[in-house]
Amino acid sequence: MKLLTAVAGLVVAVESAALAPLGSQFQNAPQSVLSLGESNPSKPPNILFVITDDQDLGLDSISYTPLIEKHLRQKGTFFRNHFVTTALCCPSRVSLWTGRQAHNTNVTDVNPPYGGYPKFVERGFNDNFLPVWLQEAGYDTYYTGKLFNAHTVENYHSPHVNGFNGSDFLMDPYTYSYMNSTYQRHKEAPVSYEGRHTTDVITEKALGFLDDALDGERPFFVAVAPVAPHSNVDPRSIEKGKVFMTAPIPLERHAHLFQDVKVPRTPNFNPDEPSGASWIRNLPQQNQSQIDYNDHFYRSRLRALQGVDELVDSLVSRLEESGQLDNTYIIYTSDNGFHIGQHRLPPGKTCGFEEDIRVPLFIRGPGVPEGYVQESVTTHIDLAPTIFNLAGIPPRSDFDGTAIPVVPNFGGARHEHVTVEFWGRAVMEGIHSEIGPGGSTMIANNTYKSVRLLGEGYNLYYSVWCNNDHELYDLSVSHHMEDIYVFICPANKLLDGSLSIAQPVSPSNQEDGPLLLGRSLTQTINRLDALLLVLKSCQGVTCIDPWNVLHPEESVRSLRDALSKEHDLFYQVQPRVSFDWCDAGYVIEAEGPQEPLTSRYGVSWDVWV
Length: 609
Description:
This is Arylsulfatase. InterPro entries: Alkaline_phosphatase_core_sf, Arylsulfatase, Sulfatase_CS, Sulfatase_N. This protein is α/β, with parallel strands linked by helices. Helices cover 23% and strands 15% of the residues. The chain has helices at 22-25, 66-73, 89-98, 102-105, 116-122, 130-136, 198-215, 235-239, 288-322, 354-357, 383-391, 521-535, 541-544, 547-550, 559-562, 568-572; strands at 46-52, 77-79, 82-83, 140-145, 166-170, 182-185, 191-192, 220-225, 232-233, 245-246, 328-334, 361-364, 372-374, 378-379, 417-422, 426-427, 442-443, 448-455, 458-465, 470-474, 515-516, 519-520. It has a 10-stranded mixed β-sheet, with helices on both faces. It has a 4-stranded antiparallel β-sheet with strand order 15-18-19-20, with helices on one face. Strands 3-14 form a two-stranded parallel ribbon. A hairpin with a 4-residue loop joins strand 19 (458-465) and strand 20 (470-474). The relative contact order is 0.16.
């Protein structure tokens, strides 16, 4: 069968408003939000960016940070549906700072050969990422805290990180050691801060850089990246070749807090019946000792975040004292989420569950509504385009995302999808983490491609694993607990949960079983699979408007549009998302079909059935 059109890399036109510079986005804004930069109209706005490490949204950590609530949530906008696209530190951060999906950066792990700072440099991004672009646009740029994994006391000068007027980076193997951190300032040698809590250290450094920025003549971008609430890692365990992660260590003044707090007991917390897919479905139910430890781990994370809460308070206070607060955008987020006990999992991330991919995002600044909750789908891929937008810089053509709606009547086109992707190993954390083969804290073959879809009347997650296991959840009624994919092909499920084939169900079965959005599961899954086929290899605007790849001549811009019966045959003959083998990184030969069919008027699809 010959494919009609290869379109995976197609560059298509997107509504110009989605990519327009800042001024045009606010032309129709109400007077209440037309205060952009009003404290100094001649000077572009400043940007303060705070990124925590492994902070959840789904486990409600933001309810325990009252100062962030006061300064950012009440004085800015909360983006309720904000997602990362890879639930792992380094790939997520590289995507954030470049505006590109991980399959386009090819930085997919925390260490070489597939990830870490050396891979970032190898891919050419040290000369081509956000701080470099902002400097070229006239900004002074500063950074302190964690940048990337595998940025070490041995390779920090090979080469030095570009793009910053001032920098003071956390260094591996001491990055996650709360009481034994090492920082590397400017182009100087690394300095150990053993005996001091890393959050106190970074607070001093952040305030120092903010003072430097405020003393300058140009607008500034200051990024602050505390390690909390990431697990604590003893550097000696890394030297012995086995990373062992334990509960984070809070500042002593916070160690007594939250004595009775427990992990939220949602339906997916240590369920009686197995849940999830692939290797997750085989996890045993946790015993009481493990549950108690999960609660301790959760409390430790909340305590560790109190130092971040105070850090934000100090930064906002310094901006207010300087008179620059009203001309500064403050962005607060995290690199990925976190699970603790959900689906019987030990503490960790690396999964496609809500706990792992949905993270906090607050934005405060000129023109941003106070106390507002934005429901639009936003992702980390959108943050670099958003910063460009706020700074009045024209967007780059290689951005895989688009500026997010910082005002209620934002004029740009929005997307309803999130491309979720992962390669390599799942990582288990905590003292009960040795659940892998031979007592390993790592689980191989955790490679998967997924699409998270939030639209009018639907809330879905569809995933294909590298063992060709499939799963589909209606998250409006389930916490990733009821895999409705099994209704269409139970005969194809093997004992280990994988699929013996990766093909659509025959037409005779298409209207059997339950309905989703008024159509059979098969018809809905056919659309989701085709969408995922586009997204897993998209580039630029095809990542923003993937439906236009499938329907370049038709007005299909959402799943609901695509579910029209006139498109049934077209979606039935699409190549299916599948893997040829499981690999530890982005190896395109392992990733099955890359190019979807393209719908064209006048084409009879029944000849393909």
